[in-house]
C-alpha cells in the first residue's frame, strides 16, 4: 500500500475575481510535499458552481433506461456534439440532499417517479480546477409511457426523453458515443453490477 499523502495546507490569500451565473475564486496557497517540506506559494483559480446529483433511470421489469437529450454549451465550446444523451441531473440547492435532487429532477426532466435509489459513487468532476462533485445513483422507475419533451421553461430547458433497452445502451457505450462523464460512469457501473441490481430489484414476471 502507498504511504499516506502529506498533510498541511496554508491558504495565504483568497479572492473572488469573478461572480456571475457561476463564480471563480483565486487562492494563493502552499502545501506540504511528499519529501516533507513545503511548496513555494502558488496561485490557483477554482471554478465554483456548486455540487450536483445525477440518476440513471432504470426499469428492471422491462430492462429499459429512461434518458435525456439536451443542449450543453460546454460541449459546444469543447468541440463535442452539443446535444448530449445523459442521465437526469441537477444542482443541489442549499439544505437539499442528493437523493432529493434525483427525485425532483426525475419528475422535471423525464416525467418519472423514482421508487428506489441505489448509490453508485461520489466523485470530483475536475478536481484540478473546480470544486464541483457529483453524487451518482441508479433510480428505479417505470418506463411505460416515457417520452416527449420535458424541462422547465424558466431554466431554458428543452429536454427530449428517450427509452433505451439494455442492449441499445450497451451498444452506444461500446461505440464510444456517450460523452458525458456522469452517464459514462453510471452506465459502466450498471453493466458491471447488472446481476446484483436485478436480483435486488427483482419483479415477478420481469425479463
Give a verbal description of the structure.
The protein is α+β, with helices and mostly antiparallel strands and 207 residues long. The protein has 2 domains: 40 residues, no CATH class; 149 residues, Nucleoside Triphosphate Pyrophosphohydrolase. The protein has 4 helices and 11 strands, in the order E-E-E-E-E-H-E-E-H-E-E-E-E-H-H.
Q: Summarize the main sheet.
A: 8 strands, mixed
Net shape: globular
Helix run count:
4
Mean of pLDDT: 92
Category by helix and strand content = alpha+beta
The CATH top-level class label of the largest domain: Alpha Beta
Question: How many angstroms does the end-to-end distance come to?
Answer: 43 Å
CATH-level-2 architecture of the largest domain: Alpha-Beta Complex
Count of distinct strands: 11
Topology of this structure?
Blueprint: E1 9-19, E2 23-31, E3 42-48, E4 52-59, E5 64-71, H1 73-77, E6 83-86, E7 88-91, H2 98-110, E8 116-124, E9 133-140, E10 149-150, E11 159-165, H3 166-174, H4 181-200
Parallel strand pairs: 4-9
Antiparallel strand pairs: 1-2, 2-3, 4-5, 4-7, 5-6, 5-11, 8-9, 10-11
Short characterization:
By secondary structure, this protein is of the alpha+beta class.
Features:
single chain, 207 residues, alpha+beta, Nucleoside Triphosphate Pyrophosphohydrolase, 2 domains, eight-stranded mixed β-sheet, three-stranded antiparallel β-sheet, 4 helices, globular
Amino acid at each position: 500500500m502507498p504511504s499516506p499523502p502529506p498533510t498541511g495546507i496554508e491558504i495565504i490569500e483568497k479572492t473572488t475575481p469573478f461572480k456571475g451565473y457561476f463564480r471563480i475564486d483565486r487562492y494563493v496557497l502552499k502545501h506540504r510535499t511528499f519529501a516533507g517540506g513545503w511548496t513555494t506559494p502558488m496561485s490557483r483559480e477554482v471554478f465554483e458552481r456548486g455540487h450536483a446529483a445525477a440518476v440513471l433511470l432504470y426499469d428492471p421489469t422491462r430492462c429499459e433506461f429512461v434518458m435525456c437529450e439536451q443542449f450543453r454549451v460546454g460541449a459546444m465550446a469543447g468541440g463535442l456534439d452539443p446535444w448530449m444523451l445523459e442521465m437526469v441531473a441537477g444542482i443541489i440547492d442549499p439544505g437539499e440532499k442528493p437523493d432529493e435532487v434525483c427525485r425532483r429532477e426525475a419528475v422535471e426532466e423525464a416525467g418519472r417517479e423514482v421508487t428506489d435509489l441505489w448509490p453508485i459513487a461520489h466523485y470530483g468532476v475536475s478536481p484540478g480546477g473546480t470544486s464541483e462533485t457529483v453524487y451518482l445513483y441508479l433510480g428505479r422507475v417505470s418506463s411505460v409511457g416515457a417520452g416527449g419533451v420535458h424541462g422547465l421553461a424558466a431554466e431554458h430547458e428543452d429536454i427530449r426523453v428517450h427509452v433505451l433497452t439494455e442492449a441499445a445502451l450497451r451498444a452506444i457505450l461500446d461505440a464510444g458515443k456517450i460523452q458525458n462523464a456522469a452517464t459514462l460512469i453510471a452506465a459502466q457501473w450498471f453493466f458491471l453490477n447488472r446481476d446484483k441490481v436485478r436480483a435486488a430489484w427483482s419483479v415477478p414476471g420481469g425479463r
